[in-house]
Design goal:
The protein has 357 residues and is an alpha/beta fold. The chain is built from 13 helices and 13 strands. The longest helix has 23 residues, at 245-267.
C-alpha cells in the first residue's frame, strides 16, 4: 500500500528580475551571479502578496490536473520558510482559500527540505488510512527578506531607469552573496492512496542535524529575544539571513547523495536504476557536485535554477512539474527526490511513476 502523485501544478509571479536588473542596485553582474549560482533570473511577488497566495494558485492547478474537487481532499500539508505572518502559518489560509472545509492542515518549517518532509508526511497519512487524498504544497515569497529600499525595488521592477542613493547601493552590495540567489514561487502535488505497493512512494530516508543549525539562519526576530522584534534588531540587520556558503556546499554535496544511497538500499534497488534525481535547487554548483558524486549523466540530475532562483520549499514540486510537462517522467520512471536545507534537514524519497493512470 502506498500513494501516487495524481496531479501537479506550479505558480510563479509575473515580475521577472534578471541579473542585469540586479546590477543596477548593487555591485554585481550577470557573469558574477551566473558563475557562482547558475541563476539568470528570478520572479518576485508584488507587495501584499504572500506565500499562501502563491500556494493557492499552484494548488488549484494541481487539483485540476488530478481531477480532484475541494471536497475530496482529506488533508493538506504546506511547507514554507516565508509565511504570510509570524503566526499562524499558511496551512489554514490555503485550506480556506481553496474551500477545503475543516480538514486537518499541517504547517512544516523544514525550509529547503520542507516539501520533501511534506511529501513523506502526506504519504504516511494516506498509507495509515488517515485519508484517501492529500494536497502537498511548497510556497515562498522571499521578496520580503530582501534588504532593499523602495527605491531599489523601483529600479528592479520599474522601468529600469531609476537612480538609487549611494548608501542603498552599498547596503545592497553587502548582502549580494545570498540576496541574488532567491526567488518566489510555489509548487503543489495531489497524492492519492494506492493499493499497489510497487508504484508511487516506495521509501524515504529523512534526517536532521541540529548541530548544524547555524549554517543558514535568521539570528533575530524570535521568542529568544525580548521583545521578539525591536528597532535595535532592525538597525543591526539581525532580521536578515546569515549563511555559511562553504559549509552548506560541503554538506549538501555529501549528504543528499548519502540519503539517496540509503533510500535506494532500503527499497532494494541500485542507483543505476534511478531515472531522475529531482534535487533541491539551491545553487547550480551544488547540483553539479551532486552529479559528480553520483557519476551520472547530467540529464539525470536536471536543473531549473537558472529561471527561478532558489524557491526553497517550492523547488522540488516546481522542477518535478516541469519535468512531467516536458514528458521526462514516463510510466514506470523511478524518481529520487533529494533535498538539504536549514536546520539542518536533509533526506531523500524514492518514487515510481505509475505504469497507467
Amino acid at each position: 500500500m502506498g500513494s501516487v502523485i495524481a496531479g501537479t501544478g506550479m505558480y510563479v509571479p509575473d515580475n521577472v528580475v534578471t541579473n542585469h536588473d540586479l546590477a543596477r542596485i548593487m555591485d554585481t553582474s550577470d557573469e558574477w551571479i551566473t558563475t557562482r549560482t547558475g541563476v539568470k533570473e528570478r520572479r518576485f511577488a508584488d507587495r501584499g502578496v504572500g506565500a499562501s497566495d502563491l500556494a493557492i494558485e499552484a494548488s488549484h492547478r494541481a487539483l485540476d490536473a488530478a481531477g480532484v474537487g475541494p471536497s475530496e481532499v482529506d488533508v493538506v500539508v504546506t511547507a514554507t520558510m516565508t509565511p504570510d505572518y509570524m503566526a499562524p502559518g499558511i496551512a489554514g489560509l490555503v485550506q480556506e482559500g481553496l474551500g477545503l472545509g475543516h480538514i486537518a492542515a499541517f504547517d512544516l518549517r523544514q525550509q529547503c527540505s520542507g516539501f520533501l518532509y511534506g511529501l513523506d508526511l502526506a504519504d504516511s497519512l494516506l498509507t495509515s488510512a488517515r485519508g484517501e487524498v492529500a494536497l502537498v504544497v511548497g510556497a515562498e515569497v522571499h521578496a520580503g527578506f530582501q534588504p532593499w529600499s523602495e527605491a531599489s525595488w523601483q529600479a528592479v521592477l520599474g522601468d529600469g531607469g531609476s537612480e538609487i542613493p549611494r548608501e542603498d547601493y552599498e547596503r545592497n552590495s553587502r548582502y549580494r552573496s545570498w540576496s541574488v540567489i532567491f526567488g518566489d514561487g510555489a509548487g503543489a502535488m495531489v497524492l492519492r492512496k494506492s493499493d499497489n505497493d510497487v508504484e508511487g512512494v516506495l521509501a524515504s530516508s529523512l534526517h536532521t542535524d541540529g548541530a548544524s543549525f547555524e549554517l543558514i539562519m535568521v539570528p533575530g526576530v524570535g521568542s529568544k529575544s525580548r521583545p521578539y522584534v525591536s528597532s535595535e534588531q532592525i538597525e543591526a540587520d539581525t532580521h536578515l539571513p546569515v549563511m555559511d556558503g562553504g559549509g552548506l556546499y560541503r554538506r549538501a554535496v555529501r549528504l543528499m547523495p548519502e540519503a539517496a544511497r540509503a533510500v535506494a538500499t532500503k527499497a532494494g534497488i541500485s542507483l543505476e536504476d534511478i531515472d531522475l534525481i529531482v534535487a533541491h535547487q539551491a545553487n547550480d554548483r551544488i547540483t553539479e557536485g551532486v552529479r559528480r558524486q553520483f557519476k551520472m549523466d547530467p540529464q539525470k540530475v536536471p536543473s531549473n535554477i537558472g529561471g527561478y532562483g532558489n524557491t526553497t520549499a517550492g523547488t522540488l514540486p516546481i522542477l518535478f512539474h516541469e519535468l512531467r510537462e516536458a514528458g521526462r517522467v514516463n510510466p514506470g520512471s523511478l524518481i529520487c527526490f533529494a533535498a538539504f536545507g536549514a536546520g539542518a534537514h536533509y533526506g531523500a524519497l524514492l518514487y515510481r511513476e505509475p505504469a497507467s493512470p
